[in-house]
Design goal:
The complex is a heterodimer of chains A (405) and B (386). Chain A is α/β, with parallel strands linked by helices and 405 residues long. Chain A is built from ten helices and 21 strands. In chain A, strand 8 (107-112), helix 3 and strand 9 form a beta-alpha-beta unit. The longest helix of chain A has 28 residues, at 278-305. Chain B has 386 residues and is of the alpha+beta class. Chain B is built from twelve helices and 20 strands. Chain B has helices spanning 17-27, 45-48, 64-71, 75-84, 88-92, 110-125, 135-141, 163-176, 220-227, 293-306, 350-365, 381-385; strands spanning 4-13, 33-36, 52-53, 103-107, 131-134, 151-155, 159-160, 180-182, 187-192, 198-202, 205-214, 233-245, 254-257, 262-266, 271-275, 281-282, 289-290, 314-326, 332-335, 342-346. In chain B, strands 1, 2, 8, 9, 10, 11, 19 and 20 form an eight-stranded mixed sheet that branches. An eight-stranded mixed sheet of chain B has the order 5-6-4-13-14-15-12-18. A two-stranded antiparallel ribbon of chain B has the order 3-7. Chain B is globular and about 65 Å long. Classes of the chains: A alpha/beta (405), B alpha+beta (386). Chain A binds chain B through residues 1, 48, 50, 53, 55, 62, 64, 217-219, 239-241, 339-341, 343-347, 349-350, 353-354, 361, 363, 390, 392-394, 397-401, 403-405, and chain B through 39-43, 47, 164, 168, 171-172, 175, 181-184, 243-244, 283, 285-286, 288, 290-293, 296-297, 300-301, 303-305, 310-319.
Amino acid sequence: VTSVRRVELAIVGGGVAGTAAATMAAELDLEHVVLDERAMVDPSVVWGIWGTRVAFVRDGRAGSLDAGVVILATGSRDRSVVFPGWTLPGVVALSEALTADKPPPGRVLVVGNGPGLVVGAALLHARGARLVAILEAAATPRLTARERAWLRRAGAPYSTAHSIIGATGRDNVERVETAAIDRDGVVRAGSRTTAKVDAIVTAFGRLASSELARLAGCRHAWVEPAGHVPERDAWLRTTVPGISVSGDAAGPSQPGAAVAEGQLGAIGAALALGRLQPTEAERRAAPLRRRLARIRRVEDLRAGAFRVGPAFLRLNHPDAVLCPCEDVTVAQVRASLADPLAGDLIDPNVVKVRTRAGMGTCQGRRCGEHLTRLVAEHAGRRIEDIEPLSVRPPIVPIPIEAFRP
Amino acid sequence: MAERLAATDVAIVGGGIIGCSLAWYLAREGVDVVLIDRRDVNREASGTNAGSLHFQIWMPSEDGEAWIERMRPQLVLQREAARLWPTLEAELEADLGFRFGGGLMVGDSDADRALLERKVAAENAAGVPTRVVVDEELRTLAPFLSDEIVAASYHPEEGHANSLLVAPAFLRAAIRAGARLLTRTEVVAIERRPAGGFDVTTSRGVRWASRVVSAAGAWSSEIGAMVGVPIGTAGFTAIVSATEAAPPVMHGMLVQHVSRGLTLKQAPPGNFIIGGGWRGTIDETSGRRIPTYESLTANVAVAARTVPVVGRLRLLRTWAGTGVDSEDGMPVVGECERVPGFYVAEAGFGFTLGPLVARLLAERLLGRETGVPIEPFSPDRFVAVA
């Protein structure tokens, strides 16, 4: 275990927000490091955080870093939606489909919800995927002129108020069942149809990757549709002293917002470290805050047009696998909730330990939201009012070899 | 005004392994029993421990010799617990994740070996069937051990269970037999009535109980304080880690280290479970129990050093759970002399000894002879020092 090092600013994540934070930190002459597993220099897998001490594995060895300020820029990930067949080969999430070596083969159905669906379909088309249909769950989505142009170019019919019911296939997805849904998200009777497909790309939006901030003990709240997002002040500081969160990790948005948040986070760090006078910090922050406010205003306006009623994410398919890591079905989770021991259960962590859902290698990243929704539904509460699944170290599996003295 | 709830014979405070098994041992005899937990059952020490069934003396990493002397009186309980556990799956008609592959407490130095010999002598004197194994025999028993291991004490019946399954299985059986369960119900006051029995005031109303049992683990002292008796137990934070699943190599065996702080087993799905009493802490901002960086890395390193195959796996998660200790390290079980009708049931190693302690107390509550004398473990021993 390598010795503890000290640094003024540690930035976790080298994506858009992390890079913007690092650039600003360099401009402000802050001593800083960026920890990212895909970094060209010193790739580091961050697996834990204790206060402002960041634990990582680099070159196969565990180490840690004590920082004056930590900026968590850990990004976001595709939201999983549970339907029968979602774990079949050939069913992939959008970012997976966009980063794979080759575009999805054959007849490709793209299904999802939100502005990212259209952008994703256009990018898939540009990569050479043959799209047969694009299904948007919202009834009257608000698209920009540019998005409408992308849609025309993608060359596939765009159906609103439609979503996926399930997929079947032996070794790979072969058929998909889709249906029309109403504004509440309820399937319209008699609207189910099936089609032959070779791949399904799901684009149901993105969830904040806030595991590290939650592990650090920062106070979070569930916000639709971003997931668990940290409480932050005007300098993007969380409730834990010394820890800030920038970019998608605090709520997925567009790259412009991530850049502004990265820069703002670094300015806040310089202020906290006494490396920038308050007036100078405010002067630099003002245009960034204005830009962020503008972006959020537009996004909030659009978000309403993409909203679908609560039945949409309700899990009405008992045979669907909820937790692919431990192979736990929706029906097994419901059975656990009906157990007399459950009493007036309101804690998904109890369901987790009783069913093993969320105990596998992905650590509940895929099923956590849906497990929590099932418990909320059972308890007659909103997901916002339910205790989240606990986050435990390491946030990603770490080779034990790294801990050898 | 608090609502009056139905009266009961026995109110058990705390839904851990002791409370749940006591509910079963009483309900199956037709006793009217209510189990009360402030949260959900099996969420603290009983459900967060590593599932070791310690039938030989567990050893701390320091002061081993003094510890052996302190543990002598409770060896009789460990001997009886070894008899009780293998019968539980059939009795409760439930899968408890049992594996009884034998237990090895290993050492890697001459000092360790001397400590193991001393421990085995104490155990044998109490009828606990351990013996020291070395060389060929040790390698044959446990080919997965590191070369640096020079000796071990071997208990052929030790093993492990799934701590997530045991207390719920007891409780399910208890509920089938008529026990009532109140979760998310906090006990806020316990008041003795002049006419006999107790008014147990909870967040959901007041309930009269003719007898009250504190099985509240780390919170026992708070329950005891409600009737003015010291219970002499305190909670601490202990960490446990799990690796990813691997092909079977330990075959139901429990491995411990006599001086380095380690318990290690392979759960039925193939994950190694790493424990050993390493301490966690309480996070200042959130109030949660969390592992410390130092404990986590050191505990896992000891596991990989002792059983090298562990070092080739990935660590999946480390959690921090509650542990419970009594002032002298021994169980606390029996009626409080100063408050007749108020009973305590706690065990330092509550998982291994919990069901036995509960059964002994049930025998006492049923007015029967206890299978093992429980007087040495009376809660009144803390009154004298208080």
